[in-house]
Specification:
Layout: H1 3-16, E1 25-27, E2 36-39, E3 45-53, H2 60-77, E4 81-91, H3 97-113, E5 117-125, E6 130-139, E7 155-158, H4 164-172, H5 178-189, H6 193-202, E8 206-209, H7 214-226, E9 229-232, H8 243-248, H9 255-263, E10 267-269, H10 275-282, E11 290-294, H11 299-308, E12 314-320, E13 325-327
Parallel strand pairs: 4-5, 9-13, 10-13
Antiparallel strand pairs: 1-2, 2-3, 3-6, 4-6, 7-11, 7-12, 8-11, 9-12
Helix pairs in contact: 2-3, 4-5, 6-11, 7-9
Amino acid sequence: MGPAPLAHVLRPLTETFNADKYPELLVGLGLSDDAAVYRLNGEQAIIQTADFFAPVVDDPYTFGAIAAANAMSDVYAMGGRVVLALNIAGFPDDLPLDIVQDVFRGGADKVAEVGAIIAGGHTVQDEEPKYGLSAIGFVHPDRIITKSHARVGDQLVLTKPLGIGIITTALRNGAASPQHIDAAVDVMMTVNEAAAEAMQAVGVHAATDITGYGLLGHGLEMAQNSGVGLRIRAADLPLLPGTREYAAAGHVPGGTSRNDEHVAPHIRDCVNLDETTRLILLDPQTSGGLLMAVAPDRTEALLAELEERGVTAWQIGEVVEGQDIEIV
């Protein structure tokens, strides 16, 4: 569901929510964020999130692993550590059981990779396969990282290249090369645990993961929640191999147009952006990277911490005054 329709259907909940009645709910139905956070005590808070979707690749094991990495990403975007997950799945009755088993096995292996465990779940019959997780993590109540505290002057750091939605669309259309598919799968299979650890080690002001709303959609949420603007340098955007060629050839996910409708009024284009780059900025990502807003005097330390943990990262812009996104 796109950002505007989602906000519409949730309005009855958000308008009647009284935060004063739930003081332990530290992040919830107020400003939108990546997950809910509930304080248990002075040292621990629970992060909870849920995410699932239809296959983006053909191999069932790989699909399960990607879906699990994607679902856990919301916990990492808030600086947490995943400890527990439940499967959420829907499958056709006639789908071979070994395929279903491979999906669950991929998810379980990815969760185990971060030292967490899948403890159960829920399945339903569905004409189209769908899989994901409800993931639970822990974070110190004073160390929660949200979208809402970016400051003017902060540097914007991104930890994964863009183009996942475009390449998986080219895959569905039979147009993607094996090398480009493999590169996209490697990115989607990579969990954001190490990036979250680097954020906590250095301290960042704000962060979010880049998923279905694309870089511009999730960046706009950070800007509006924080009461600031973002300046993104188009030339510094990291792209997966083949992204520009597939986008120019029309292999664009359907969610791109919904993202465009939502963010278009809030984008200032100062470089006469070409259509292909605009589509890439709007591209819905699956298991994308973390976008971080970090103080200028901590940027080098953050990049060093990321590199030490094997995480490639790019500086793609800065936080500025305003509440919109400027592309330069």
